[in-house]
Amino acid sequence: MKRFTNWLRNNRKTLGVSLLVSLAITIFSYVVGNSIHPMAGEYAAQKQISDFRKFLGLQMGNVPDSILFINVCYDKELVPIEEEGMPVGETPITDREKLLKLLTAAKEANNYRYIFMDVLFDGLFETPVDSALFETIMSMDRIIIPDHKGTTLADERLYQKAANADYAVTWKQLTFAHYQFLHDDSIPSVALKMYADRNHLEDYGIKPHWGGLWYTDKGRLCKNGVTLFINVSINGSLLDEEGQVRERNYIYLGADLLDMDEVVPIKEQIEDKILVIGDFKGDRHTTYVGPQPGSACCINAYLMLMQGKHLVNWLNILIMFIVYTTVGTFYLRGASFQTLFANPWLGVLMSFLSTATLFMVIALIAFWHEIAFNMWVPATIYSLIDTYVQKRNLFNKKKNEKNLSTSGA
């Protein structure tokens, strides 16, 4: 104990600086993680863990009984399209008459949990059933449709039922790996609006503070942006990467639902279900589990909210703070992985254990337990500290050698 106390006393300045750096990293990681953009390393760590789980034969992507995926990829109709006021042909859109039939049956039964209809009602297109369809949507509870920046919905009233369904990429991260709940601190995402509706929350639950510096949900510190974990995925030959036909875990709107109404009534198929309606063939995004529809990504974000995974876990924060402080103290004392061992061969081996590799290993462990970890911030900061300290030590060494040679002369 006395030895440890003496060590603390002798290294109190280094330890103090390391604690401040650890605090700065913790706060900065939280702030940066709340943005809409994915962080470097998120996809890589998720992909490696996903591949390892597949190698072990672990079950992934099972759809719970409470969710019913409805595919509209083959339920299309042709509508005329114009450019600069001149007709140029026709384009396929989701069959709105079939959507009207489904919603009419769902409204009459009123036994569904929620409906996420991932179909964009673009104002560029019109069909004969639009008036009846939009009126039905507006008259229903527990339903949401997507909205995207740069598009105009076909009916102004639809904005009351809409939420943002956009996501962002960077030049280095072109995958759907990150999800932001509240856009521009005021515009709710699809997942957040579903979460608020299901829990009867005001202000969508998540509230920004100090211009979006930090966020709370029912008084608890939370994250506005999360690494997206996909625990529910769409399976089937449409999305198979390896050419192997797998049993699909969705149904088709026309063939399996509407056409089979007399055999298995719609009201029985939708009872106590969250209906997720979308084009699972045309609307696909790159994720760490393979191509997935945007609707599946939004549903996984919603499930993360319902499971409280957006709430800040203080135990995880404490563990990482201790790790940051340990690594920071190690570097600030002028140490490096190579100098840990007297054996030159071990020194060469340990030199490959860079800062980035260290935090990549931590990220892999975290993602295995489905704990989001932003490795980019600590890896960057500690790499800079390591480089600075090593360069400073080298400069001081050369300076001392020069002084010794001068005094010897």
How does the helix and strand content classify structurally?
alpha/beta
> What is the count of β-strands?
17
Strand order of the largest sheet: 6-5-4-15-1-14
Large-scale geometry: elongated
Evaluate the radius of gyration. 27 Å
SSE series: HHHEEEHEHEEEEEHEEEEEHHEEEHHHHH
Span between termini: 47 Å
Q: How large a portion of the residues is in β-strands, by DSSP E?
A: 15-25%
Mean pLDDT: 85
Main β-sheet: number of strands, strand sense, barrel status?
6 strands, parallel
| Helical proportion, percent range | 40-55%
Number of helices: 13
Which spans of ≥5 residues are poorly predicted at pLDDT below 50?
none
Topology:
Elements lengths: L1 H9 L1 H22 L8 H15 L10 E5 L4 E8 L2 E9 L1 H14 L4 E4 L12 H10 L3 E5 L14 E3 L13 E3 L1 E2 L3 E2 L1 H10 L6 E4 L4 E4 L2 E3 L2 E3 L23 E2 H6 L7 H4 L4 E5 L5 E4 L2 E4 H13 L7 H19 L11 H8 L3 H14 L7 H33 L1
Parallel strand pairs: 1-14, 1-15, 4-5, 4-15, 5-6
Antiparallel strand pairs: 2-3, 7-13, 8-9, 10-11, 11-12, 16-17
Helix pairs in contact: 2-10, 3-12, 4-5, 6-9, 10-13, 12-13
Describe the structure concisely:
This protein has helices at residues 2-10, 12-33, 42-56, 96-109, 130-139, 190-199, 253-258, 266-269, 294-306, 314-332, 344-351, 355-368, 376-408, and strands at residues 67-71, 76-83, 86-94, 114-117, 143-147, 162-164, 178-180, 182-183, 187-188, 206-209, 214-217, 220-222, 225-227, 251-252, 274-278, 284-287, 290-293.
